[in-house]
């Protein structure tokens, strides 16, 4: 039988490289902006254990282009690198029937010091990292002049009392905070505001 017609792949690869370079550059800028905010937020939630060298909360963008993608100076250079990489794996992609290069193959690596958070972080550390990402994103949005709503969806049940209290302190300066909890006692007393109970399909303001 006839093999696949690859005559149009050059055109598609060019479009993918151009659009991918824009997305990759934006992601790299975002990770760079979030990195110090995440480290600071993790340190605050974890109680001072997140900025020492051996347990510092770190974000790394893992590109399918390989190490050093964040050092590429411009979108044009990124597009050229993507196009070259796509050409280099074309035969393998066709043989395997999968895409191997592009921003859709990239990942965000979370680490505590030299160790990846996945598989090594404790339950409390994992939740602290998740909250640090949420708080860092919130602070980044605030820096643009907006006042986003900070949503904390049933997070206090997963934290020890120290982390609960520190998280409550961190949210004190937020314009609007929406907290959900299955057990009212999980919410620190330091968080005050309007309370709504949902029970048996009925909504009641307390």
Automatic annotation (TrEMBL):
SUPFAM superfamilies, per the entry: P-loop containing nucleoside triphosphate hydrolases (SSF52540)
GO terms of molecular function: ATP binding; single-stranded DNA binding
Gene Ontology annotations of biological process type: DNA replication; DNA synthesis involved in DNA repair; double-strand break repair; SOS response
Keyword terms: ATP-binding, Cytoplasm, DNA damage, DNA repair, DNA replication, DNA-binding, Nucleotide-binding, SOS response
HAMAP family: RecF (MF_00365)
Matching PANTHER family: DNA REPLICATION AND REPAIR PROTEIN RECF
Protein name per UniProt: DNA replication and repair protein RecF
Organism, as annotated: Jiangella ureilytica
Gene name as annotated: recF
């Amino acid at each position: 039988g006839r093999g696949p017609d690859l005559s149009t792949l050059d055109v598609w690869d060019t479009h993918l490289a151009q659009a991918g370079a824009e997305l990759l550059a934006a992601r790299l800028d975002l990770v760079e902006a979030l990195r110090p905010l995440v480290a600071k937020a993790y340190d605050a939630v974890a109680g001072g254990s997140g900025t020492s060298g051996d347990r510092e909360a770190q974000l790394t963008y893992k590109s399918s282009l390989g190490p050093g993608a964040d050092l590429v100076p411009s979108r044009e250079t990124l597009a050229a690198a993507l196009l070259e990489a796509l050409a280099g794996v074309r035969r393998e992609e066709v043989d395997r029937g999968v895409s191997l290069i592009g921003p859709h193959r990239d990942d965000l690596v979370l680490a505590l010091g030299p160790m990846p958070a996945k598989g090594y972080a404790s339950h409390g550390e994992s939740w602290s990292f998740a909250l640090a990402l949420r708080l860092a994103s919130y602070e980044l949005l605030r820096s643009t002049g907006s006042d986003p709503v900070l949503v904390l969806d049933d997070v206090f049940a997963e934290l020890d009392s120290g982390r609960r209290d520190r998280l409550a302190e961190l949210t004190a300066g937020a314009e609007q905070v929406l907290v959900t909890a299955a057990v009212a006692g999980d919410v620190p007393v330091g968080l005050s505001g309007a309370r709504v109970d949902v029970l048996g399909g009925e909504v009641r303001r307390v």
